[in-house]
């Protein structure tokens, strides 16, 4: 955390008495602090401004303070402690994925594993791509409750683009339960699996690569994880008989693990990885000769 | 000309060869005829009044006709200029919404405050007209005023109405920041861009993969679950032209990107239009003055409560009405009339040139 010099603080005070509180979270950038102040002022009643700014000084995520984060196509995703905040990086690949999927005519069945706030599944259904069934699975009751709220408050957008799609959030622990134990007879014949599982390793948790605000206020349950999740995602993909998947991840080992395991089971899978400005972000796979071959547009590199 | 019009009209009313082009032509034509008929009606009214006014037998009628003539003449002038403007070719982007971009010019702090005032003026102007309006970005200076700002007025035809606003606006007043009470002169520049609709729009240009460079600005690091930053700024660089658009006002990075793309499209469209206009001018070696020069177009003098538009010479003594958007129309009307006049003069010159 860089020290904020007194000149910046006095400049901020001149602009507004609230602004200095916001300098810590914006790492001393007056421009960023001013933007946050404008958002706070436009989204919260005046009586809450002071407490909001003070909470931000303690590095409480702005999304928890304001209670929401906009996502993809005009979705409002409610945010609450105990559930991971939707990330811009996730929004990025979701939007790109939707643009590819909307070329597929047949309505798809998609499974969102570790669905959290529901941002991924909700953005898919609110897009121009067509879906018949989209289910979310999460182990956290807080997440399921929030995802269901988000389903309700965004129902207008969902109705507009996919009026016939059946959406549901189901509790399930993928590390300990098979898909058939979670979904019963509905475990088979899904088209595509999407997932943003916990992927921050124990080493990374201890290092400075993790933002302080994340470490202090977001749920470890949604953050800490590694290969064990990708092992289960591979099993689940096979059990669901899916022909494509997009998983978010944090390092190349996780991508390689998915490709290796799945290739062993079925050599007709093709894999690619997608990067963003933060580095490797996704592992993507599809079956050769399936309708999902255009997913290669999402990849920056083939794997293997 | 009336004959030509009738001929076209009868061909239209056949209804045999009805296609999109014809429909467009027809709507232009019929809107012209409405104005033209109105003009003809007023003209015959005028002629009747003149003969009455010259009637030596009825003195009462004479006086009454003279009174009515006083009303009729300006009405006819207005209709006549309406007819002329309908005859001129419509502006390329006349049916579009617009984006206004504002930037302070000379005058430091005061220029920034004036930029804010102008942005408010256009916002209120759109509200007066009940046009859909949204502030795209406003970059506030720490000590008041705007470093830059932009406004989207998403109403068909807003571009045509506001395109005369492009140029340098000058303010003369005692700034809030001035302690000795002296009058300062500062400026702000306004750029008017056409809004290009995404998707269905014919004018929409597709960008090749390597034509754009899109950067998201954020702290370094691994991203993803590691950060929950609120930084959502997007910078788009159009590589062939070097145009850079930054948008950072929205919390959603996706929306910032969409807005930046919209502004980029608008800037490219306006750039291409200006290049075309310049080329045409060069071809005709046009030295005729026009209303779209980029120098100082208007002065807002606060101490005299006066707005003067330098292109048409109009001085309006209702500065506050203008600044809250209510009487800005009077100024724009005058500039439009001036443009119509200049353009029709040029058209006549051209026609004479051809006839020689």
From TrEMBL, chain A:
Record has Cytoplasm as a keyword: no
Ranges for the Methyltransferase small domain?
Answer: 109-225
Q: What Gene Ontology terms describe what this protein does at the molecular function level?
A: nucleic acid binding; peptide chain release factor N(5)-glutamine methyltransferase activity
Tell me the Gene Ontology biological-process terms attached to this UniProt entry: methylation; translational readthrough
Question: Can you state which reaction this protein catalyses?
Answer: L-glutaminyl-[peptide chain release factor] + S-adenosyl-L-methionine = N(5)-methyl-L-glutaminyl-[peptide chain release factor] + S-adenosyl-L-homocysteine + H(+)
GO-annotated cellular components: mitochondrion
Q: Does the keyword Transmembrane apply?
A: no
For this protein, the Enzyme Commission number is 2.1.1.297
Question: What are the UniProt keywords, alphabetically?
Answer: Methyltransferase, S-adenosyl-L-methionine, Transferase
This chain's protein is named: peptide chain release factor N(5)-glutamine methyltransferase
| Organism, as annotated | Kuraishia capsulata CBS 1993
Q: What is the lineage of its organism?
A: Eukaryota, Fungi, Dikarya, Ascomycota, Saccharomycotina
From TrEMBL, chain B:
- Please name the InterPro entries in this protein's record: PCRF, Pep_chain_release_fac_I, Pep_chain_release_fac_I_sf, Prokaryotic/Mito_RF
Compositionally biased spans, kind Basic and acidic residues = 277-298
Q: A Gene Ontology biological process annotation? A: mitochondrial translational termination
- Pfam family of the protein (one): RF-1
The record's region (Disordered) falls at: 277-299
MF terms in GO: translation release factor activity
Write out the entry's keywords from A to Z: Methylation, Protein biosynthesis
* GO CC annotation: mitochondrial inner membrane
Annotated Gene3D superfamilies? 3.30.160.20, 3.30.70.1660, 6.10.140.1950
Tell me which domain of life the UniProt entry assigns to the organism this sequence originates from.
Answer: Eukaryota
State the PROSITE patterns in the record.
Answer: RF_PROK_I
Domain (Prokaryotic-type class I peptide chain release factors): residue spans on this chain: 218-234
Membership in a protein family: Belongs to the prokaryotic/mitochondrial release factor family.
**PANTHER family registered for this protein in UniProt:** LD18447P (PTHR43804)
This protein's name: Peptide chain release factor 1, mitochondrial
Protein's organism: Kuraishia capsulata CBS 1993
């Amino acid at each position: 955390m860089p020290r904020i010099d007194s000149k910046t603080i006095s400049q901020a005070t001149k602009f507004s008495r609230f602004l200095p509180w916001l300098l810590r979270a914006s790492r001393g950038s007056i421009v960023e602090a001013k933007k946050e102040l404008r958002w706070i002022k436009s989204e919260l009643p005046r009586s809450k401004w002071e407490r909001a700014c003070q909470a931000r000084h303690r590095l409480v995520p702005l999304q928890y303070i304001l209670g929401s984060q906009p996502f993809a196509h005009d979705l409002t995703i409610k945010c609450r402690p105990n559930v991971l905040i939707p990330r811009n990086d996730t929004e990025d690949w979701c939007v790109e994925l939707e643009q590819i999927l909307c070329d597929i005519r047949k309505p798809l069945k998609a499974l969102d594993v570790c669905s959290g706030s529901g941002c991924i599944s909700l953005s898919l259904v609110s897009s121009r791509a067509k879906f018949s069934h989209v289910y979310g699975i999460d182990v956290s009751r807080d997440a399921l409750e929030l995802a269901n709220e988000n389903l309700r408050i965004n129902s207008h957008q969902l109705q507009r683009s996919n009026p016939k799609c059946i959406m549901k959030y189901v509790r399930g622990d993928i590390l300990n339960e098979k898909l058939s134990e979670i979904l019963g007879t509905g475990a088979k014949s899904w088209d595509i699996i999407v997932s943003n599982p916990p992927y921050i390793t124990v080493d990374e948790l201890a290092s400075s690569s993790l933002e302080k605000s994340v470490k202090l206020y977001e749920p470890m349950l949604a953050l800490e994880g590694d290969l064990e999740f990708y092992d289960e995602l591979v099993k689940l993909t096979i059990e669901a008989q899916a022909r494509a998947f997009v998983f978010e991840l944090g390092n190349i080992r996780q991508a390689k693990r998915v490709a290796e395991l799945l290739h062993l089971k079925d050599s007709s899978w093709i894999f690619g990885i997608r990067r963003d400005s933060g580095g490797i972000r996704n592992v993507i796979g599809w079956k050769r000769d399936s309708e999902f071959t255009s997913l290669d547009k999402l990849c920056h590199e083939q794997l293997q | 000309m009336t004959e030509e019009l009738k001929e076209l009209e009868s061909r239209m009313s056949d209804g045999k060869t009805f296609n999109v082009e014809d429909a467009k032509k027809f709507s232009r034509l019929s809107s012209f005829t409405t104005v033209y008929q109105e003009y003809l009606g007023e003209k015959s009214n005028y002629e009747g009044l003149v003969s009455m006014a010259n009637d030596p037998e009825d003195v009462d009628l004479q006086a009454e006709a003279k009174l009515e003539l006083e009303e009729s003449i300006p009405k006819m002038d207005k209709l006549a200029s309406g007819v002329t403007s309908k005859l001129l070719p419509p502006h390329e982007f006349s049916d579009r919404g617009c984006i206004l971009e504002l930037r302070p010019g000379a005058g430091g702090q005061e220029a920034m405050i004036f930029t804010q005032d102008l942005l408010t003026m256009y916002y209120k102007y759109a509200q007066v007209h009940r046009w859909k309006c949204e502030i795209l970005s406003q970059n506030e200076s720490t000590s008041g005023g705007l470093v830059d700002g932009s406004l989207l007025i998403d109403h068909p035809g807003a571009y045509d109405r506001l395109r005369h606003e492009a140029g340098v606006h000058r303010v003369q007043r005692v700034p809030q920041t001035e302690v000795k009470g002296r009058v300062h002169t500062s400026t702000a520049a306004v750029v008017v861009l056409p809004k290009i609709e995404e998707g269905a729009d014919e004018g929409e240009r597709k960008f090749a993969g390597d034509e754009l460079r899109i950067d998201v600005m954020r702290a370094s690091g691994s991203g993803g679950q590691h950060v929950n930053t609120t930084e959502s700024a997007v910078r788009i660089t159009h590589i062939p032209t070097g145009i850079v658009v930054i948008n950072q006002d929205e919390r959603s990075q996706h929306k910032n990107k969409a807005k930046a793309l919209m502004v980029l499209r608008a800037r490219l469209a306006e750039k291409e239009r200006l290049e075309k206009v310049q080329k045409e001018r060069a071809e005709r070696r046009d030295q005729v003055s026009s209303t779209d020069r980029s120098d100082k177009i208007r002065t807002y003098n606060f101490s005299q409560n006066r707005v003067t538009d330098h292109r048409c010479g109009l001085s309006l003594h209702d500065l506050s009405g203008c600044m809250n958007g209510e009487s800005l129309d009077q100024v724009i009307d005058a500039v439009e009339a001036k443009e119509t006049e200049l353009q029709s003069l040029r058209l006549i010159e051209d026609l004479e040139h051809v006839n020689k």
